[in-house]
User: What shape does this take?
Amino acid sequence: MSTPFTVLWLQSGGCGGCSMSLLCADTDDFHGQLRDAGIDLLWHPSLSLDSGDDVVALLGRVLDGTQPLDALCVEGSLLRGPNGTGRFHIMAGTGLPMIDWVRKLAAKARHVIAIGSCAAWGGVTAGGDNPTDACGLQYEDDARGGLLGADFHAGAGLPVINVAGCPTHPSWVLDTLMALAAGSFGAADLDTLGRPRFYADQLVHHGCTRNEYYEFKASAEKPSDLGCMMEHMGCKGTQAHADCNTRPWNGEGSCTRGGYACISCTEPGFQEPGHPFHATPKLAGIPIGLPTDMPKAWFVALASLSKSATPKRVKVNAVSDHVVVPPVARRTRLK
Amino acid sequence: MTRLLVGPFNRVEGDLEVTLDVADGRVASAHVNAPMYRGFEQILRGREPHDALVYVPRICGICSVSQSVAAARALAALGDITMPDNGRHVTNVILATENLADHLTHFYLFFMPDFVRPVYAGRPWHDEAVRRYTPSTGERVRAAIAARQRWFTLLGTLAGKWPHTQSIDPGGSTRAVDAAEKVRLLARVREFRRFLETHTYGAPLEAVVALDSEAAFDDWVARDPLGSDLRFFATVARDTALATLGAGPGRYLSYGAYPQPDGSTALGAGVWQGGALSPVDAAAIREDATHAWLSDAGGPQHPGSGLTVPEPDKPGAYTWNKAPRLAGEVVETGAIARQLASGHPLIVDLVGRHGGTVYTRVVARLLELARVVTLMEDWLRALRPGEPFCTPGPLPDEGIAAGLSEAARGSLGHWISVRDGRIANYQIVAPTTWNFSPRDADGRPGALESALEGAPVRDGETTPVAVQHIVRSFDPCMVCTVH
Assistant: This one.
C-alpha cells in the first residue's frame, strides 16, 4: 500500500461548523471514504481519540520532521489580537498562541488548506470593528497577506487553498483532499482568490429553483414567498461564486431553496455587505448588485421588458408560499 | 500537591483547558479555561437587529439552529410578532433535528470513545467497546455518522442547509412544506427511528420512554447487558462507577423547550432542586466577570444590561468565560434539567438516588433522544400545507427583549436592546457558559469545577480518564460558551 496522505486539522477563531458540515458528507461511510482515498487523518479536534499530551506530542513530531504532513487544514480565522500577541486564542495545554502553532506547522506542510471563509478571509469573526484582529491564512478580506503573508507557498508549491464558505460544503473539502491525495490538483485548479475552481467557477444562481421568477423579475416581497429574492430580499446568488444549487446541501437543500437569500458566504468580506443582509440595496429603485458580467443598461431594459411580460401565474405565485396558480395542463401535445 | 494542565481537550466543541491540582490520587481543585475569545457581543453592536439572524448561528457550528431560535424569539418579542402554527411546528422540528443530532454525536463520537482507552483493557466489555466505538474505525461510530448524515437531510429540505440556516424568522419558517414533502419528512424520521431502535436502544422508542424507575431500567438493561448501545453504556457505567462520578451542584435549570399552541413547552421549564420544581426567575440572572479576562466594572450584571469588554491583562482572571449565577447560585443545565423539569419518572428517580453525575447526564440525554423523536412525528403530522408558515412583522426602532430557548446542551438566552433602529447591546448566556463557568466573586467554583473535585487520578496519568468522562458528560460547547 502506498504512503497515506496525512492530514492534520486545527480549529481556531471560528464556530467548528465546517467540521460539523463535513460530517454531513454524502456517503454511507465517512471514515471509510477517507481511508479508501488514501487519506490518514492524523488528528481532528472532534474525531480523534487523542487528547492533551498525546496531541502536543504529535504536533512536536510534525515540527521535528519525524511525522510527515501532507495537508494542514485550518478551520476558523486567525486571531492576531490583542496587540499582535495572539492571546485571544492560546492553544489549550500549550501556553502558546494558536497563530504561532499555525505559522510553524504551515512551514512543515506540503499543502495548507483554509477550511471555510473564516480561515480563508477572516469571515464573520472579522465582522464589526474586528475586536480580535481576525484574519485569514493568506487573506484579510480580499487583500492578500493574512497570517502567512502574500508570498507564502506551502511545501508542494501552492499558495493557501481557500475552501471558502460559511460553512463550507462537505464535498468541496473532500473533493479537494481527495484530488490532492491523488496528485491531481495543481495551480491551474485554483481561481484568482485561491478557491478550488471546481466549485468557484459556478454561480449560486446556476440551478436555482426560482429561475422562472428571476426570468420574469417576479419577486418575493417577504420571507417564505416563492419569488426571486434578488430584487428585494438581498439575494446575491447571481454574483456569488459557488455551486450550491447544482451540488445541493444536506440532500436537497440550498439557501435559496430554504427560502432565504444567498449572502455570498464564499466571497471575501461577505460579513460586512454595507447593508442589512435581508434587504437589497438599490439606487433609484434598481439593485446595486447586478448579475455578474451583466451591463446595467441591458439589465434595466430586460427587467422592465420581462416584468411587463410576466404571466399571472408567476406573478401570483411569486408572493405566495405555495403554488396558488398551477401551470395550465394543455390538452394537445406540447410542441 | 501536583498541578496538571490538561489540553487540548478534544471531542468537545471548541478548545478547552483544565488545570487540576491533585493530591492523594484525587483532584483537589479544578480551574476551567475557555481559551478562545471572538467577540460576537461586540461585533453585533451597531448592526440592524435582523442581521443578528445571520451572525448568531455562526457563534456555533454545532448549536447553530439553537442560536437562531433564541435570536428569532428575542426579535419576535421585540416586535410582538407571533408565529402561525405551521411556523411553530417547523421551527420545533428544525430545532429538535439539531438537538437530537447533537445527542447522537455526543454519545457515539465524543463520549463513548473514551471507553476504548487502554486503561480499560481487560474489562469484560473492553474488546466490544473497541469494536464499536473506536474513532474512525468503530462499527457504531461509523453507523452513527451515516445515520446523522441522513438525519440532517431533514434540514436540507426544511432549512436549506445545516449548519447556519436563515430559514428561522421571528414570524415563522421561510420554507413552507407541501403535502408530498410532509410525507417524505415523516419517512425520513422513521428511518432514524429504525437506527435508534436497532442500535441505540434495541427496543421501540415508546418502550424506552415508558421506563419509569431505576428498577425498571435496570431490569431492562439486565435482559441483554451488552446488547444495545444504551444497555452497553449502563453496564459499563456500573463497572466503572459512573453513577458516583462528577456530581453537579444539585440545582438544574431549564427554560423549557419546544413551544406548544397553548403557550406551554413540550419539555418543561423550571429550576429543579431537592426533588421540587420552581419557576425560573430570569430577572435573577447575573453574570459575574471577576475571573474572566473581561471588564467586571459595576459588579455582576443582569445580561439585559451586561457588557463584554476584553481585559486580557486582568489579574486573577483565568478564562474568557463569565460566571452566570441564578439568584446567586451555581446551576447545571442540559437534557438532565429538561427531563427533571418535565417530570420524567426515570430521570427523577435516578437523580433522586445518584444526583447529577456522569451516569445520570448520559442516561437523561439518551432518554430525551427517544422522547423527542416521537414529538417530532407529532409536529410533522400537525402541519397544514397551504396555510401560512411565516407571518413576518416590522421591528421597532427602540426596545429591549429576551429570547430564551433550550439548546441540546441546555438553557440558552439572548438579550437584545435596540436604539435608533440599531443593536445597542446584545448579550448571550449559553448552556456551557453556565456549566463551565469559572469561580465567582465569592470564590464559588462553577458546576464543572466542583464536579471535578474528588475525581480519581491514576498513577502517571497526565490526562486523567475520569476527568475526561466528567468533562464530556456535560457535552460542552466551548465556542458557544464565550462567543
Chain B touches chain A through 89 residues (CB under 8 Å). The domain at 2-482 of chain B is CATH 1.10.645.10 (Cytochrome-c3 Hydrogenase; chain B). Chain B has a mean pLDDT of 97.
